[in-house]
Amino acid sequence: MSANGTITQALREAAAQMLSDKKVGVVIGYGRDEGQEFSTPVFLRKAEEVERLVFDDLCFGNLAVYLSRPAIRKMGKTGIVVKGCDLRAVNVLLRENVIKREDVLLIGVHCGGLGEPRLPKCLVCEVHSPTGCDVVVGEAIEQPEVKAEQRYTKADEIEAKPVEQRWEFWQKQLSKCIRCYACRQVCPLCYCKRCIIEKNTPQWVETSPHVRGNLAWHVARALHLTGRCVGCGECERVCPMDIPLGAINQKMAKVVDERFGFRSGFSAEDEAPFTTFSTEDSEEGIL
Amino acid sequence: MGEQKLYQASANWLKSAVDALCAAGVEVLAPTQTDSGKVDLARVTSSEQVIGSYANTAFPLKRLFLPMSEVLLKYEKGENGDVDLEPESAEAKELVILGCRPCDVAALGMLDKVFQWDYSDVAYQQKRDRTTVVSLACTEPSPECFCTSVGGSPQGSEQSDVLVFGNADNTALMQVNTAKGEKFIERLADAVTPAPEGTKLPEPAELERKFNPQKVKGWLDDNFESDFWVENSLGCLGCGTCSYLCPTCHCFDIVDEASWNRGQRRRNWDCCSFSQFTLHASGHNPRPNQAARYRQRLMHKFKYFPERFGLLACVGCGRCLKNCAVGQNLIADLADIESR
Amino acid sequence: MSKEQQNKSEKSQWQPRIVAFLCNWCSYAGADLAGMSRRGYPAAIKVIRVPCSGKVDPMFVLKSFERGADMVLVSGCHPGDCHYASGNYHARRKLLAFRELLDFLGIDQRRFKISWVSAAEGAKWSSLVKEITAEAQALGPFETFATMLQGEPS
Amino acid sequence: MTEKTIKLTIDNQEVQTEAGQTILDVAKSLSIEIPTLCYHPAVPSAGACRICVVEITAGARGGLVPACSYPAQDGLEIQTDSERVRQSRKMTLQLLLARSPGAKIIREMAEQYGCEELPLERKDDDCIMCGLCVRVCQQIIGTAAVCFAGRGPDREVSTPYKLLSDVCIGCGACAFVCPTGAIDPAEFCSNPLEKIANEFNCGIDNRTPVHIPFPQAVPNKPVLDRDNCIHFRTGGCGVCKETCPAGAIDYEMEDQVVEEDVGAIIVATGYKLFDTKVFEEYGYGKYPDVVSSLEFERMVSASGPTDGQLYRPSDGKEPKTIVFLQCIGSRREKGGVPYCSKICCMYTAKHTILYKHKVHDGQAFVFYMDIRSAGKNYEEFVRRVLTEKMATYLRGRVSKVFPRNGKLVVRGADTLSGGQVEISADMVVLAPAMQPSPGVQELAQKLRVGYDQHGFLLEAHPKLRPVETNTAGIFLAGACHSPQDIPDCVAQASAAASKALGLVSHKQLTREPTIGVVNELSCNGCFECENVCAYKAIEHKELRDRAGNLTAILAHINEGLCQGCGACAVTCRSKSIEVQGYRDDQMFAEINAIGR
């Protein structure tokens, strides 16, 4: 049996066990829908349904997005299949009191990377093996060293352009945005009951999908995710207009990494960079 | 097809069309390759830019008539306190769309119903009036396509001024449906000749029917309250991708964007999947959860719209299932409904 | 008059619009002191008082650009002197990161200034405003933002 | 009448007293003076020196007895100054004089009793072998570091084997009690105490570890300097406690951090003087006769270290020529401070008068920039100094002070005559700039009040709120705010006190309503606001449904604690916190007005 096949089997067993033991009200995992280019989320309520569960090379999604969804929370304790990268999002949710640890049952999967060719995020993944899960399935995977300069290559690439070209680039990219908000909806950390975009007294961000409004929206999104974004790349994957949103988030991740030595989601106990400060922070550029 | 006329076009018809139209100062939109590798309608000035083989464009035609964001009027408060109102004047320039697909064109019929129902929407109608739609019959439907399930056809000519049946050797058979279509043919000049009497249209591409909308509606009529809505919407994230890429979805929001003394009123797309779409000022939300919003979307397309206008609000283009972030599958959902 | 000269004179006619968010306790008081000390500074600056530089949301800055500001300044107490103990430290983190974001998106960083001006620094305020006004004048209108709507899709 | 009451007669005065007292004690109570050397009230008497002898004429076996140790008895008749007594004392003193001719007290006593020098071998040893030091060390301190050693002519007070003592705790009690000043623990102690400079007198003299900090101290009571007190350093000594008649010394008392809830704070941290050492050309710290104005002030003070005698620190001679230099650091952008220290002109004028008062034939010079004498009667005061020629005022700066032939040469410019002047002076007095006390910035940061680049605290408004700060309830008085003289300080202190009373005399406190408010409809309960709140004003509010089940925990802002800084509002991503008065719609309205 392939590695993924073994994981699938183990996941089904674990899910069946916890569902029949009534330890959880629902297990969120991946399922296969032929005709889809990725494995889609499935929500299992009964042990008999576990055959729907799979783990394969196409489990791109970050299921942690569902942890804050009221419809899911109503079902009781949630079992959720998490890759190492997804776990980083869970850590942020824990840190921000969105979920309580006792309300989730984490089913960790050792994951060496997804997609063919591998997704860019998988190439620099530093959490092949999830830690702190309740159940872990699969064989532990050797964690290759990731150098600091590998982490933000996408942002680096854009940064290398002169400022005028960056403006042109983003003007072109952001003019495509149709404000479907898929980037927001798929983000596990965009859990606000009321998004800033929906605050209209006053209107923080223009809702019209013109460049000015789009720029404001993506700036707001980037700022709200600064020091929080775990780089799962879902926003970019789901963007129907193929805007390289991940690069913006990556830029901000780079900023907090370089300025404050902070990387999000590696622990639920971290202090987020924008909720704390150091008197030693850089003063450069202040008049 | 009584009034329809058939023409034969030579292999260089596309080049002639683009050249002739551009020379006449007509704006031409045709499928082109986007920088991210997709195919989408864009302004062209040369037939070189036009992409030949594609299942469908990334975006439906809708945004040409109901733009994502459209200025309806502008206003400015003068020194003396008077307010100057200036309705936005629509582009009157003639526009020809070359090579859109029959499903997207058919959707215009639904939009027409909405925007000309009790009041003729000027902004919409002006755009409709200036546009000639030259559609291209489908020969290779994509796996997501299901126009036949909703009463369409890979070579449906509904709302299309000219329907083109392309051949492998780039020659084409053109079916002209309207006066605007006639004008287009005239512009092609030598590149077209009337088809010989008795020329037959090619057989439409085969596309399996995946559900029966009548049966679906039957179930919808009786099952406003059903676990189906909750169970099938668990994965839905509530984004607007399906609606915004849908050729028939037409909900909009009107906003004023004003600074100190001047501003503009805009019509922007909106979407019933958004949690705030029906949020009342009181704080009450009649569609309080994603299940209710998902139900609304299906009900609107397959029950309410047909009840009001006698048309399904779905043309089977398959964009919603192709682009859904979580793989929500409308065909599967409707097939499920039918099986209930 | 040559075209160049004309442009030049038009440019010197043109007054930049600089939005300044000043914390109530230091920079606003510093600007006040400049006035009381009869130290002049260019009227191009439009002051918006905030309780603390830590109250300046980066979106305020962006909004100012949207509304036609050619330059935005956020000014607070010197580090360690915040009336609210740490507001300026928070501001420093957020605003400098925000400035990097603007730069990344292709927006000229020179359009967004951050400064520390204490309540005793009327002279610094006056010279700072003169300096940045001259810079804004040299940079010219912030057309990047002013013309952004032209790229609107149809 | 109890048995213990006894009656005796001293110098024909009848006296009733209790048993257990010595003749010396009784005589003291009658204010009859009996000279002593080896006696110290804190140390048990030994009758060693025989200076205190008195004559018993009746009531016991007659004869000479030492008053310090002979018990008072019923019926005694005593003469303290009879011929016999005087003869005895004279003889004793003649012998002591031969041994210790250098001891001041012996010389004085010997003179009093008309002693001539005897043709004896002079010992030239100040120690009179009274053993008071030995007794205090053994019986009071309990250390026994020194003792008599040797026999006969070799007898002396010494440490064992005359080695440096590591037993000696360096308390100095021996030296303190020694009548002749013959003993110095520094000579035999392996760890002697350093002299403690008297801070109030600018270190001109020394003080003991127990001291009254300054003459007008409130309360005017001695304090124990723990860092220097031998008891706290070694656990020994304790003499002060033994000898304090009021029993006021308590070594167990600890410094306490006192926490008080107060309604108002008045900051009156005063000033320090500019460190004039940075101006090497004036030679302060290098030449002992260059002193600061504050040192001069102490020197000429009647209650100062020299009892008002003015003499040069270097050689103790009276300075006949003195030069005062003003604006040392003041009004000096480079190396100094740009502001005027305000008080120097006036006190320098006063110093010239004081100088003239002390040294009638002395000559004073003042180098000044301008004379700033704004204030009631101030100009008149300076005018008097000038017209009465108390000092010669020279308008100009001094470029250098350097020694020459035992004098200090002051070289400077006289800008009025346009020439260079050189004054050969005995003493130079510098008037340093006034600066805020050290640590005032840290204090200001704690109190969250502003300060300027010099460290002077900022008032809320220079004209309208001069004694208030921007932080409610904190007021300023005195030189922490700016250089001020005494009347200004008093006026400001009175104003600050009135403001503080005005604040605390109300039952309810009125405060600014500009505080944060949470919108509970959109609050996510992420509590990132809590992390940025410097005032711990964010509370956790539990929301419950009608059945009492917990439905959510949301942020709530404590109205009393919130100061309205708005850090939470910016941190809140869902924009669920707004600061009243600075609401987002208000902010945006202001921003919108730019496009006007």
The biggest beta sheet of chain D reads: 5 strands, mixed
Q: In order across it, which strands form the biggest sheet of chain D?
A: 2-1-5-3-4
Provide the domain count of chain B.
Answer: 2
Please report the total strand number of chain B as a whole number.
Answer: 12
Low-confidence stretches of chain B: none
Give the CA-based shape of chain B. Answer: globular
- How much β-strand is present in the residues of chain D? 15-25%
The helix content of chain D, as a percent range, equals 10-25%
Tell me the overall shape of chain D: extended
Rg calc of chain B: 22 Å
Largest interface: A-C, 49 and 40 residues
Number of helical segments with 4 or more residues of chain B: 11
Low-confidence stretches of chain D: none
Helix/strand-derived category of chain B reads alpha+beta
Distance between the termini of chain B: 38 Å
Structure description:
The complex is a heterotetramer of chains A (287), B (340), C (154) and D (596). By secondary structure, chain A is α/β, with parallel strands linked by helices. Chain A contains eleven helices and five strands; from the N terminus they run H-E-E-H-E-H-E-H-E-H-H-H-H-H-H-H. Chain A folds into two domains: 3-137, no CATH class; 148-275, no CATH class. Chain A has a five-stranded mixed sheet. In chain A, helix 6 packs across helix 11 and helix 9 (211-225) crosses helix 11 (245-260). The model of chain C has no long low-confidence stretch (mean pLDDT 87). Chain C has a single domain, classed as Rossmann fold (3-Layer(aba) Sandwich), CATH 3.40.50. Chain C is 45% helix and 15% strand. In chain C, helix 2 links the parallel strand 1 (18-23) and strand 2 (45-50). The radius of gyration of chain C is 16 Å and the shape is globular. By secondary structure, chain D is of the alpha/beta class. Chain D has a five-stranded mixed sheet with strand order 2-1-5-3-4, with helices on both faces. In chain D, helix 2 (83-99) runs antiparallel to helix 3 and helix 9 (344-358) crosses helix 10 (378-387). Chains in contact: A-B, A-C, A-D, B-C, B-D, C-D.
